[in-house]
Design goal:
With 252 residues, this protein is of the alpha/beta class. The chain has eight helices and seven strands, in the order E-H-E-H-E-H-E-H-E-H-H-E-H-H-E. It binds nicotinamide-adenine-dinucleotide (NAD).
Length: 252
């Protein structure tokens, strides 16, 4: 199945590296105009140059609702609305697993803000224009941690990703009448950034072998494996699929 996004505009958060970068590059390669957003401006510029001239870079903190509103206003006021929103910004923000007694309110709230509230604010800001055009695709990136448990034991991460899956289902029902689909990709462990590299090293040879042995396809995934699932949900081919969570983890 090949996907074509000519004439579509895709906004991707967390596009400075990892999955978000792969998703931005994949959309641009298939004809979309891409609005790549992140807080890391240098890395974001690299994404934009990899994706080519169809991609523009925008510094955006997804926890800043006012900034999201301003960007949405600029986009809809200037050269067209956003057709496809991918909420990929997230992660554990450098936190590690600790007993719950040691988790501060700030640690707890920071992970919720980026993984859950950000997806809500972006959807809230961009859905009105999607409704007017009677077309929209929202794809949220959760995690296996949102369906089961966090391998690293980070309570807020598992909870926020589970919440983001709930938000996906709820918005699918709210927005479906306007031909807007809302779906979710739940990746398994992928070595895609310095945090996952550290986690991989910490597993040791035995832990690494066990992780791979527990994957049906006996290999780790890549950012492109995740981007491919996003391309499907964003495509015309997925026009009657909404509120779904697709595990992209090599099979468990
Ligand atoms: N790599 C994995 O193993 C894995 C597994 C399951 C789920 N995920 C999820 O996939 C998504 C992408 O992960 P990744 O592995 O590509 O990680 P990553 O760290 O490479 O990408 C996350 C991006 O989000 C950006 N970001 C963080 N806070 C932000 C904010 N407030 N506003 C805007 N951007 C912000 C970061 O700068 C970074 O570029 C995350 O939501 C993560 O939770 C990753």
């Amino acid at each position: 199945m090949s996907f074509n996004f000519d004439g579509r505009t895709a906004l991707v958060t967390g596009a400075a590296h990892g999955f978000g970068r792969a998703i931005a590059v994949a959309f641009a390669a298939r004809g979309a105009r891409v609005i790549a957003c992140d807080i890391l401006e240098d890395k974001l510029a690299e994404t934009a140059s990899l994706a080519g001239e169809a991609c523009s870079a925008h510094r955006l903190d997804v926890t800043d609702r006012a900034a999201i509103g301003r960007l949405a206003g600029e986009l809809t006021g200037a050269d067209g609305a956003v057709d496809i929103l991918v909420n990929c910004a997230g992660g554990v923000l450098g936190q590690v697993g600790r007993p719950l007694e040691e988790i501060s309110q700030g640690d707890w709230e920071a992970i919720f803000a980026v993984n859950l509230s950000g997806a809500f604010y972006l959807s809230q800001a961009l859905a009105p224009a999607m409704k007017r055009r009677r077309f929209g695709r929202i794809v949220n990136i959760s995690s296996g941690a949102g369906l089961g448990i966090s391998l690293t034991g980070i309570q807020a991460y598992a909870s926020a990703k589970a919440g983001q899956i709930g938000l996906t289902r709820q918005l699918a029902h709210e927005l479906g009448a306007w031909n807007i689909t809302v779906n979710n990709v739940a990746p398994g462990f992928v070595r895609s950034n310095p945090t996952t590299e550290r986690q991989w090293e910490a597993m040791g040879e035995e832990g690494q072998a066990k992780l791979i042995q527990n994957i049906a396809l006996k290999r780790l995934g890549t950012p492109d494996d995740i981007a491919n699932a996003v391309m499907f949900f964003a495509s015309e081919a997925a026009g009657w699929i909404s509120g779904q969570v697709l595990s992209v983890d090599g099979g468990k």
